[in-house]
Amino acid sequence: MTQEDGDLDSLVRKRIRALRVAQGWSLEELAGRANLSQSSLSRIENGRRRLALDQLVTLARALDTTLDQLVETADDDVITSPMIDSAHGLMRWPVKGDPGMTVVRQRMTEPPPENPARMRAHPGREWLVVLSGAAVLMLGHRRFRVETHQAAEFPTMMPHAIGTAGGPCEILGIFDRDARRGHQRAGGDTEARDPAE
Which of 26, 96, 157, 174 lies 20 to 30 A from 120 at CA? Predict the structure, then answer.
C-alpha cells in the first residue's frame, strides 16, 4: 500500500464517521441502515477492518451520498480567482465540483426592460442573491422585488429579466449548465440587465 492509498483509506474512514455523526446517528443506527454489525462498522471507522467495495457502496447509500463523493480526494487548489469580464461588469467563477455550474457577480444600474419581447427564456435554472441594493426580477408578467440578502430561484423556461429597483444593485447568480448555455447563445445581445451575460 502506498502513502497515497493509506491517506485515502484514512480519509474515507474519517468521512464515514463524520457523516454518521452529522446525521446524529449512533454506530448502532448506521450499522442497522447499512445491514452491518455494530462491531464491523466500528472496526471500519477505526481502521481495524479492511474497506471492501461492497460495504462502501452500502455505507454510501445509508449515509445518503454516493460512492464517488465518499472516496473523492481533496484538490490542492481550494482557492480560485474570478475571470473578469469588464465589458459587462461581471466576475465569473466556475464551480469545480460541477463544471456545468457558473457563479457570476454583477453590478446593475438599469431597470429590467418594460418590453416583454426583451425577456429571455431557455432551458435551465438560475439562483441569485442580492448583495446590495434591491433588484427587480421579471418572470413572465409577474414582477418581484428582491431586497439585499434575499434570494430567488426560478426555472429559466419562463421569460425573465433582472434589473435594479431604483438605484444600483449588486447580485450574485448561480447558473446550471443549461442556463449558462442559454445565456452564452444569446451573448450577442447587448442587453446587460441579465446577470449571466
Answer: 96
DSSP per position, the chain: --HHHHHHHHHHHHHHHHHHHHHT--HHHHHHHTT--HHHHHHHHHTSS---HHHHHHHHHHTTS-HHHHHPPPPS----PPEEETTTTEEEEE-TTSTT-EEEEEEE-SPPPSSGGG-B--SSEEEEEEEESEEEEEETTEEEEEETT-EEEEETTS-EEEEESSS-EEEEEEE-HHHHHHHHHTTTS----STT-
pLDDT in tens, 35-52: 999 999 999 999 888 888
